[in-house]
Specification:
There is one protein chain. This protein is mainly α. It has a domain of 164 residues: Orthogonal Bundle (Helix Hairpins), CATH 1.10.287. Helices cover 79% and strands 2% of the residues. The protein has a two-stranded antiparallel sheet. The protein starts with a helix and ends in a 20-residue tail after the last helix.
């Protein structure tokens, strides 16, 4: 009974610890779910901003490229007109050089702006790619944590059920031992009751045993003496008041 009682107390303590662990794991799981939702929302918002920025950069790049392309193909350098103040009889001065090549504007500046926009666009696209990989890794880590935590919670519940089953067996064994003890006590009480009933007679026999034993010996001695007298024996009566002791007849 003591062994089962101690085991029951031990198992109940372990169950309390398991329940506390389960509560903490459930809290951690809820917090992880909340953090994952916040991370997802932040990722989606940042991605939307980056994609909008990338779209805007592409649009500006295309517009600028179209502008320089269109104007560079249509604008031509015009030839210089002869001067109007030529004196009569004299040859006019030579005309200034003319340009037949089309005017394409400041191509160096155009190329520089286009390169800058392309670099910005590549940076934004790289940020989107890095954020996407980080989001995928965060999802994988969350799924792993969730799976392991749920498995741990399930294992803890199973362990608690096993300990509850053991507690039930210990309680059953305790009750059986208690019933057996009560049964044994009932038998013992019956024996003690019988002893108590027989005690007066047993005590009488115990107290009077020596007196009764002495009387039996004296009776035996008297019979032996009487037998000896009948067989012709004689006895000196030097002290008629002498106490007869067991064995005198011999």
């Amino acid at each position: 009974m003591t062994r089962n009682t101690n085991r029951i107390a031990e198992l109940k303590g372990l169950i309390e610890e398991k329940n506390a662990t389960i509560i903490q794991m459930e809290k951690d799981l809820v917090e992880a779910e909340r953090n994952r939702a916040d991370e997802k929302a932040a990722y989606e918002a940042a991605k939307a901003d980056d994609e909008a920025a990338a779209g805007l950069i592409k649009q500006a790049k295309d517009v600028l490229e179209g502008f320089y392309k269109d104007n560079g193909l249509t604008l031509l350098q015009k030839a210089a007109q002869p001067p109007t103040n030529v004196q009569a009889g004299k040859a006019p001065p030579p005309p200034p050089p003319t340009f037949d090549a089309p005017y394409s504007g400041s191509q160096g500046e155009s190329g520089g702006i286009q390169a800058i926009l392309q670099m910005i666009l590549e940076d934004v696209e790289s940020d989107i790619e890095k954020a996407t990989k980080a989001e995928e890794q965060a999802i994988e880590e969350y799924n792993t944590f969730k799976k392991e935590t749920e498995e741990s919670i399930k294992a803890a519940h199973e362990a608690i059920e096993e300990m509850k089953g053991e507690i039930a067996k210990c309680e059953e064994a305790y009750e059986d031992a208690k019933a057996e003890r009560l049964s044994t006590k009932g038998s013992l009480d019956s024996v003690l009751k019988e002893i108590a009933i027989a005690a007066p007679g047993c005590e009488f026999m115990t107290i009077n045993f020596s007196v009764r034993n002495k009387n039996r010996q004296m009776e035996i001695d008297g019979l032996l003496k009487a037998k000896a007298i009948l067989q012709g024996g004689s006895f000196d009566e030097t002290d008629p008041n002498r106490e007869i002791k067991p064995g005198d007849a011999m």
